[in-house]
């Protein structure tokens, strides 16, 4: 259970505010106004603290509880502005568009690619194949992972395909993340960006039906992850 002890607002109010921010394209000041219209007076700085504190905790639970994914992956990165500079959000979905994993990085290089692949495999298992673009860093990262798999596993390695058009499903998926982050006008700190993006990805996973809902609404599914 995620601990809400010591908070000055009811758990339900906090979860509604966090979910609304992560799911819809609003700014913190927009959300402050929305909450006020519903009789809850809370400033935008407090809303930010709630998102940064609870979003990554709920995201971790979502990763552990998401439905099984396919073994054919699509991987690419998109740009996110943090402190006025571009950072890189590494993302992967399976052939059906289901979210596998994500990682925000200051750099787009071999080290970041390798770290992302290790994380995604640790969460989802070893895929049969991964489709990437023409990025040399991503290819080198996968080759490094394959070397490790060859000598530490059962000899099974990942088939790598560099075919850009096959990543169209991922490019479409990027658009949802960009649509939600656009009103945020960039992030002021890397840690808050990573926390918020983890929550946005979780809301997106719920939207895609990746978390067992048993007839629950999207918000009810989100709240259940915090139970």
Report what the structure shows.
- The protein has 227 residues and is α/β, with parallel strands linked by helices.
- It folds into two domains: 11-67 and 188-225, no CATH class; 72-173, Nucleotidyltransferase, domain 5 (2-Layer Sandwich), CATH 3.30.420.
- Helices cover 52% and strands 16% of the residues.
- The chain has eight helices and five strands; from the N terminus they run αααβββαβαβααα.
- The chain has helices at 11-23, 28-37, 44-65, 110-124, 136-152, 168-181, 190-207, 218-225; strands at 72-82, 85-94, 99-105, 129-132, 159-162.
- Helix 1 crosses helix 3 (44-65) and helix 3 (44-65) packs across helix 7.
- The radius of gyration is 18 Å and the shape is globular.
- The termini are close together.
- The model has no long low-confidence stretch (mean pLDDT 93).
Topology of this protein?
Layout: H1 11-23, H2 28-37, H3 44-65, E1 72-82, E2 85-94, E3 99-105, H4 110-124, E4 129-132, H5 136-152, E5 159-162, H6 168-181, H7 190-207, H8 218-225
Parallel strand pairs: 1-4, 4-5
Antiparallel strand pairs: 1-2, 2-3
Helix pairs in contact: 1-3, 1-7, 2-3, 3-7, 4-5, 6-7
């Amino acid at each position: 259970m995620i601990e809400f002890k010591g908070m000055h607002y009811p758990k339900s109010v906090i979860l509604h505010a966090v979910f609304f921010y992560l799911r819809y394209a609003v700014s913190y000041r927009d959300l402050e106004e929305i909450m006020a219209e519903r009789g809850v007076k809370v400033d935008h700085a407090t809303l930010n603290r709630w998102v940064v504190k609870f979003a990554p905790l709920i995201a971790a639970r979502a990763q552990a509880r998401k439905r099984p994914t396919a073994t054919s992956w699509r991987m690419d990165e998109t740009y996110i502005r943090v402190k006025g500079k571009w950072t890189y959000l590494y993302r992967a979905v399976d052939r059906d568009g289901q979210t596998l994993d994500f990682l925000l990085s200051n750099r787009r290089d071999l080290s970041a690619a390798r770290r992302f692949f290790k994380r995604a495999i640790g969460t989802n298992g070893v895929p049969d194949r991964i489709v990437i673009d023409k990025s040399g860093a991503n290819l080198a990262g996968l080759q490094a992972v394959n070397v490790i798999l060859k000598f530490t596993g059962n000899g099974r390695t990942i088939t790598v395909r560099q075919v850009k058009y096959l990543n169209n499903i991922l490019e479409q998926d990027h658009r949802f993340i960009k649509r939600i982050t656009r009103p945020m006008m960039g992030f002021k700190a890397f840690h808050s960006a990573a926390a918020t993006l983890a929550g946005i990805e979780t809301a997106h996973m719920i939207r895609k039906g990746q978390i067992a809902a048993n007839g629950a609404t999207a918000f009810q599914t989100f709240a259940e992850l915090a139970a």
